[in-house]
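User: Here's a chain of 143 residues. Predict its fold as tokens.
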Amino acid sequence: MAKPADTSTATKSVAGKTARGSARSASDTEKIRTALSERLEELRGEYEQMITDSNEMQRERLTDSAGDDQADTGTKTFEREQEISLANNLLERVTQLERALERVDEGGYGHCEKCGNAIPVERLAAFPSATLCVTCKQLEERR
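Assistant: Prediction complete.
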């Protein structure tokens, strides 16, 4: 798998300006957009590679399944389900980054979608596609 891009530096420096209430410059916005776009392309590549690898392994399993007992079949099914789960997780991260880029373009990046407060710099540095502040996220998870 590809090494994750370090979006935290650009995101952290720009998000800090936003969280303190000052206007984000066009240069800052472009830095965020670039960092998010680079990470998005990496994740798309990982996803496509994972799907390719998964399909190839599935073909191999089908041709190599003669004489399998129930345990072998169960193991292959479990492995396939894990691959699907990992692919779905990657796809979800792609979707989150696409939404973050939309928020950058709309001017809402770095602000909570529920309450409108600034999302803390530390949260954006750790999770650049965050759409909720810590308080709103905690309330959502309690439901």
